[in-house]
């Protein structure tokens, strides 16, 4: 289950990264205000989940 969670989080992070590369890190809302692209938060959260799953599997590198 942990390995599957790690793989799913990795896929989600890659999908979000592709959206950011395509659309840019900043988007404009309906009022013309510049905001971080929603995929930025998705990528950050997915990477956090990936690292947590890898640590639980004892596969994460040791901190420097």
Defining key terms:
single chain, 64 residues, mainly alpha, two-stranded antiparallel ribbon, 2 helices, 64% helix
Q: Describe it for me?
A:
The protein is mostly helical. The protein is 64% helix and 9% strand. A two-stranded antiparallel ribbon has the order 1-2. Strand 1 and strand 2 (34-36) form a beta hairpin. Helix 1 (2-23) packs antiparallel against helix 2 (38-56).
Note the topology.
Blueprint: H1 2-23, E1 26-28, E2 34-36, H2 38-56
Antiparallel strand pairs: 1-2
Unreliable runs:
none
Biggest pleated-sheet summary: 2 strands, antiparallel
Q: Based on CA inertia axes, which overall geometry fits?
A: elongated
Order of helices and strands: HEEH
Strand order of the largest sheet: 1-2
**What class, by secondary structure content?**
mainly alpha
- State the helicity in percent bands: 55-70%
Beta strand count? 2
Distance between the termini: 28 Å
Q: How much strand content do the residues show?
A: 5-15%
Instruction: Summarize model confidence as the mean pLDDT.
Output: 92
Number of helix segments?
2
Radius of gyration: 15 Å
């Amino acid at each position: 289950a942990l390995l599957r969670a790690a793989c799913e989080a990795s896929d989600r992070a890659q999908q979000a990264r592709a959206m950011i590369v395509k659309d840019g890190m900043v988007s404009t809302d309906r009022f013309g205000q510049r905001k971080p692209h929603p995929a930025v938060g998705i990528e950050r959260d997915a990477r956090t989940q990936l690292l947590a799953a890898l640590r639980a599997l004892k596969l994460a590198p040791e901190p420097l």
